[in-house]
Specification:
By secondary structure, the chain is of the alpha/beta class. It is built from 16 helices and twelve strands. The structure holds pyridoxal-5'-phosphate.
């Protein structure tokens, strides 16, 4: 494309430099189902391994199908470079392992996906990386937890169950005073929020969710904004300023801008060190499935959010509902963050608490006819789940309370079906929720 277009609807279809397949002129992005790539000669092979030249080496590290997806996701988020990985969990893991090693710490928001909490609290802590939790209702809580070993801040744009929008600029500004990058998980808010525009250094996604959009493939991405100076404070970011013995003593923070002309050492290190060592590559077949979803993400997000807004107004008036949790349904300072950070919609997810408590919640879920009862979010279909007995069931009481999951909380992910059908299904299930007992949900 000659003109650089910056609208998400267009980026999602045309973003990056792919126009058609160079070998066949195919317009749809081909699935390059290959593990390896023939080198032109020994010098070419050596140059690729030494990063003197960029090109395909091995599909654990890069693949042409994934490359198209990476360029589009980077452009959608307003970043410079992207690495796709096998899942959203891998994206979170890599984002932390790319800045922190044993003895270091990350200051993370308490408002997190349950799987991220268990990754942080259990697996990463066993590797010697401490995660310190800050309540994002006051951004200064992040500053209080910083010490010399703090390598990054971590937050989620629109975390469920609280559905409080994260104070991206406020926390990013604090971090930048100390040369600490902000890593944002933007899984629940593609298109309606671009954390990089508000100062985030790195944006990750579970592409499994709204970007994939159809519940057909598990995938993750890590976008390097190019806006963070990894060399400004060498003691703060040793992994980008000390020679890396695993790569011939390269200093990533200096070498990558010199080699590529772009300030993307975070993305390059994640690819050539973490994908090299840990694997977790995205299969090109799954990259293809995500590319199909990505093409319509802007349309879908608009419809998800419009439907959700309608549902919020319906639920607020329903006699069986005691509380509606939504990005705009908080006290003013928190609700104002939705206005500040979200564009074109206030999010696709809603939480509810029912008059009849936990039993009513379970009965409500079992009475839904069109909504699916699944652990996923971000499907075109409407979804519902009871987090305390499922997605958050591995958290202890303290972790549950910190994450905002009450025993009676039900999470709704509003799909893109016709609004009349969504309301009809919710209404009939709510009306059954207080009548008699059904067997407990899983
Ligand atoms: N981040 C968020 C906000 C999520 O909701 C999820 C999954 O639900 C993940 C990360 C993990 O993604 P995946 O299931 O693709 O590993």
């Amino acid at each position: 494309m000659t003109k650089k277009r910056n609208n998400p609807e267009t980026i999602a279809i045309h973003g990056g430099d792919y126009r058609s397949d160079p070998a066949t002129n195919a317009v749809a992005v081909p699935i390059y189902r290959t593990t390896s790539y023939q080198f032109n000669n020994t010098e070419h092979a050596a140059n690729l391994f030494a990063l003197k030249e960029f090109g395909n080496i091995y599909t654990r590290i890069m693949n042409p199908t994934n490359d198209v997806l990476e360029k589009r996701v980077a452009a959608l988020e307003g970043g410079l470079s992207c690495v796709t990985v096998s899942s959203g969990q891998t994206a979170s893991t890599f984002a932390v392992l790319n800045v922190a090693q044993a003895g270091d710490n990350i200051v993370s928001s308490t408002d997190l996906y349950g799987g991220t909490v268990s990754l942080f609290t259990h697996t990463l802590s066993k590797l010697g990386i401490e995660i310190r939790y800050a309540d994002p209702s006051n951004p200064e809580n992040f500053e209080k937890l910083i010490d010399d070993k703090t390598r990054a801040f971590y937050g989620e744009t629109l975390p469920n169950p609280y559905l409080r929008v994260f104070p991206i600029k406020e926390v990013s500004d604090i971090g930048r005073k100390y040369n600490i990058p902000l890593i944002m998980d933007n899984t629940a808010a593609p298109v309606i929020c671009r954390p990089i525009d508000h100062g985030a250094a790195v944006v990750i996604h579970s592409l499994t969710k709204y970007i994939g959009g159809h519940g057909t493939a598990v995938a993750g991405s890590i976008v390097d904004s190019g806006n963070f100076d990894w060399t400004a404070d060498p003691k703060r970011q040793p992994l980008f300023n000390e020679p890396d013995e695993s790569y011939g003593g390269v200093v990533w923070g200096k070498a990558v801008p010199e080699l590529t002309g772009a300030n993307v050492p975070f993305a390059v290190r994640a690819r050539v060190c973490l994908l090299r060592d840990l694997g977790s590559a995205l299969a090109p077949d799954n990259a293809f499935a995500i590319i199909q979803g990505l093409e319509t993400v802007a349309l879908r997000m608009r419809q998800h959010c419009a439907n959700a807004e309608y549902v919020v107004n319906f639920l607020k008036k329903h006699k069986e509902v005691t509380k509606v949790i939504y990005s705009t349904e908080h006290d003013k300072p928190i609700a104002n963050r939705a206005k500040k950070y979200l564009r074109g919609g206030n999010g696709p997810m809603i939480g509810i608490e029912l008059k009849g408590g936990i039993e009513a919640g379970k009965k409500f879920i079992e009475s839904l006819k069109m909504f699916y009862h699944v652990a996923n979010i971000g499907d075109a279909r409407s979804l519902a789940i009871h987090p305390a007995s499922t997605t958050h069931s591995q958290l202890n009481e303290k972790e549950l309370a910190a994450s905002g999951v009450t025993q009676s909380y039900v999470r709704l992910c509003i799909g893109i079906e016709h609004i009349d059908d969504i309301i009809e299904d919710l209404d009939q299930a709510l009306n059954k929720s207080s009548k008699g007992n059904l067997k407990a949900v899983s």
